[in-house]
Amino acid sequence: MPDHRLLKSLLLKLIAYYWLLMLIGLYFDEISNTLLVGSLIIILVNVKEFVDVVNWIWHSPHKRDIKDNSYWGYIYRGVDKSIKANRQRRKQLIAALSQFREGADALPDGVVVFNQDNAIIWCNSAARKFLGLQWPGDRGQLLNNLIRHQEFRQFIIKGDFNQILELPSPHNSSVLLEHRVTSYGADLFVMTSRDVTVLNHLEHMRQKFVADVSHELKTPLTVLNGYLELITDQEDLEPKMWLKATGAMKVQTKRMQQMVEQLLTLSKIETSSQTIVTVIKIQELMALIKDDATVLIGDRDLSINFVDHSDAVISGCEAQMLSACSNLVSNAIRYSPDGSTIKVVWQRVNNGIEFSVEDNGLGIESIHIEHLTERFYRVDHSRSSQTGGTGLGLSIVKHVLVNHQSVLRIDSEVNQGSRFSFVISDPIAAT
After folding, report:
1. Which of 57, 346, 351, 407 has the most Cβ atoms closer than 10 angstroms to its Cβ?
2. Rounded to 5 degrees, what are φ and ψ at 194?
3. What's the CA gap between 241 and 227, in Å, rounded?
4. What is the Rg, in whole angstroms, of the alpha carbon atoms belonging to the chain?
5. CA 256/CA 140 separation, integer angstroms
6. Residue 365 φ then ψ, to 5°
7. What pLDDT sits at residue 421?
8. Residues 424, 282 within the same domain
9. What backbone torsions phi and psi does residue 283 show, to the nearest 5 degrees?
10. Average pLDDT for 69-79
11. Is there a single domain that holds both residue 316 and residue 371?
């Protein structure tokens, strides 16, 4: 960078130049004319250099050679240094902007930047996916014209962005979007569009679950309350009525207790991050299933056959597996009419060991099969009430099998019976 030494050098050269002019003037005895001509030459040379510098700056400074044969070279070098510095800063800004756009483009939420006239300035790939926008084709287009949902148009035009707007995606109606708009800068706005389909579904499931539990508890509580009022109002209640009242209350209490226990079991299975995995012997597991089935059958006219491979073993949580198998067997017992035959089988198959429960009962219509593992789903509510089912058994089975990397298969025909089965990988075959 030039400093006071440049001025000193320039003054010394001017003094030497004019001393030379003085000597020439003395030699020709024309001092005034010599000084005048010399000064004009200096002026013309510097004007020429000035014009060259201006042309160099305005036209193509990156193509012209930098002159370094005069003091104007400092200007050339200074301008060239500034140009290079600006180019470097511009590259850095472009790189930073590119990184910002790549980062914003990678966001799972849609991002749209628009101005106070609602003209789109930029949008990321998620916004193009959710809102059906195109880039760069929609640059400068009005956001409220491209998304023609009436409520969305009013939201954007009104400009009251304190509220949150939830609407289906115009590009995919099955996706629910949550729109938020935030202002920044002088007249710029950024809209984020988040996919809340899953959250909305979970909220509906929660509401449905609360409603279902309330509905399921309403009937037994009504029965209990009715008999308690009867006992309270009648001091001399007949023994037969006492037996009927206490018997009915006991049944309803047992039903509520069973529902609470199954809800706790289901909650434990869903929330358990770790389960104790052991080697389970099929023969021992089948013995426990038989004990539960015998108690549930009681004196009913049902035939149940158990078939297993005594040497077979599986790997998993024994408590959860017993719960899943017992629920499938108990469902078959509850919903099979007297005189039916139930077959419970553990057998080796190509991809592992299969557990199946097969009956020749009433069967299930195909429209119900995909909903059977939902909580409190009932094919026949009246029949479920009679048999004491809670509508939670198959939901428990589903979550147990998820923990064991398996799925429940349901095959059923009306008036032909049903078959529930799942396959657990064979730990011996795997090794």
Report:
1. 346
2. -105, 140
3. 10
4. 44
5. 63
6. -65, 150
7. 93
8. yes
9. -60, -45
10. 71
11. yes
322 near 341, Cβ under 8 Å? Answer: no
pLDDT tops 90 at residue 385 = no
Whether the pLDDT of residue 66 is over 60: the answer is: no
- Per-residue b or e along 127-141, where b marks 16 or more CB atoms closer than 10 Å to that residue's CB: bbbbbebeeeebeee
By percentage, how much of the chain surpasses pLDDT 70? 89
Note whether 116 and 161 are within 8 A (CB). Answer: no
Task: Specify the pairing of strand 303-307 against strand 341-349.
Answer: parallel
Note down the domain range covering 187.
Answer: 107-195
Contact 115, 189 (CB under 8 A): yes
Determine, yes or no, domain membership for 389.
yes
Q: Is residue 102 part of a domain?
A: no
3-state SS of 262-300 is HHHHHHHHHHCCCCCCEEEEHHHHHHHHHHHHHHHHCCC
Are 145 and 174 members of one domain? Answer: yes
Rounded Cα gap, residues 188 and 235, in angstroms: 79
